[in-house]
């Protein structure tokens, strides 16, 4: 990759943080640049002044081209303008944002809806934006100035989808009132009302020739309608769950539909016959789109991924991985080289359709990491996951050690004993597991809670284990025998537990709990190293100072610190490890 090209990717990738904190050009931007980036290789040597062990990063720039940060809540809809120069995004923060697709800079902020924005679409000439909302209205906006135009009122429930006809004369909207409505795009007057679905309408699309409208519904069907007369055509049946997305191919001959049955289906628009069934997502499909040449289909899902598919054969292509939450919207750029995706992680991402690389260290869990903890000597990391297991890792090498298998549901919390020889884990199966940290063998299973275990901790002498649960009880257990010593009812769920130095009380997220065991346990020998690093929202702080801005994909779902070392568990199942000087 040429230096100019690499520098361009570096600048585009980091424009947000550089605008917010310019000195992060030499810190976060370099730290998280690919290892083979020429910019990183030329200027990244200074990072060694601050960080001893760096997190693993991809070798090369991945598929993502931009990340647009600015919404205050989850992004629910995205759309490219016809010339590919602008991206529109709708959000639960009740606004529509417009973005420059080349630079990632934010443009007009369209404010006017009284509830969450659920759908956005550009007019064919790019001069107007339509948005649908849970306030039951459709709004039309001037895309250049951001000024509001006609307000389309008529639906009796949340508007879930909007689309312009290719000739720009008509707007279609779908609603939870089970109908599709057609509107005059200039005057805002209501036209035909398309009635036939038995449940919420969640998606609408015009055929490229403007002659048909497709609608998807929670009645598990796709329906095709005559756009001029409002008459119902073929009824496409085959999905086993709610249909959440529909799209026409550019030649109007095919319809793609996405569903909560985790599949995408392709249909013959004229005959209503089912074509290839695209299987590969692990969760509900929420969005579908055809590439401009009709050869590819993009789909977004609650599995946090965007998938690309061959429209002719149904074979899966690149997996675009990077969002930290459900993907809610996808769109192709007019040249077909870029896919935009919106997510409930509050971001919009742009991807190169030809690639999709990425990678982090400590990879082994098959589902999200929910809890992590350092051993007292800082040499080992324990991680608990939604894959129902606890994994142990060597901090120096990143290699996986014993895999602790025994829980029947997700692991929600983990802790080491003071001597580092045992690990305690709490789970959604309502139990606490005690494990040998060297062999991975289960020593005890502590049974008694009536709900998910949310916190565990060892006493300073390692003889007792405390656990908190969704049953609003804190229980104290004998670590050697597994017997319950005492229990206390709490006003709320305890999600964090720390023993006092003498073991006589517990500090929790809801206050201090007196165990009535004053000086019953002696203070463990040695003093834990003072923690100098912490993760505060999007910043890594070292000795109280913001040092590194953390990109979204590295922020994760849980974290722990020991001395100058920081662990961050990712929703993907990976773990990032940092060690600062």
Walkthrough of the structure:
By secondary structure, the protein is mostly beta strands. The protein has three domains: 3-62, no CATH class; 64-352, YVTN repeat-like/Quinoprotein amine dehydrogenase (Methylamine Dehydrogenase, Chain H); 369-528, YVTN repeat-like/Quinoprotein amine dehydrogenase (Methylamine Dehydrogenase, Chain H, 7 Propeller). The protein contains four helices and 50 strands. It has a four-stranded antiparallel β-sheet, with no helix packed on it. The longest helix is centred in the N-terminal third of the chain and has 18 residues, at 3-20. The radius of gyration is 27 Å and the shape is globular. 51% of the residues are buried.
The portion of residues assigned to helices is under 10%
CA-atom Rg in angstroms: 27 Å
Proportion of strand residues: over 45%
- Placed side by side, the strands forming the largest sheet appear as 1-50-49-48
- Counting structural domains, the number is 3
| CATH domain topology of the largest domain | Methylamine Dehydrogenase, Chain H
Mind telling me the CATH class of the largest domain? Mainly Beta
CATH architecture of the largest domain: 7 Propeller
Average pLDDT figure: 83
Sheet having the most strands: 4 strands, antiparallel
Number of DSSP helices?
4
How far apart, in Å, are the first and last alpha carbons? 32 Å
Q: What is the approximate shape?
A: globular
**Number of distinct beta strands:** 50
Please name the fourth-level CATH homologous superfamily of the largest domain: YVTN repeat-like/Quinoprotein amine dehydrogenase
User: By helix and strand content, what is the structural category?
Assistant: mainly beta
> Runs with pLDDT <50, length 5+?
356-361, 518-530
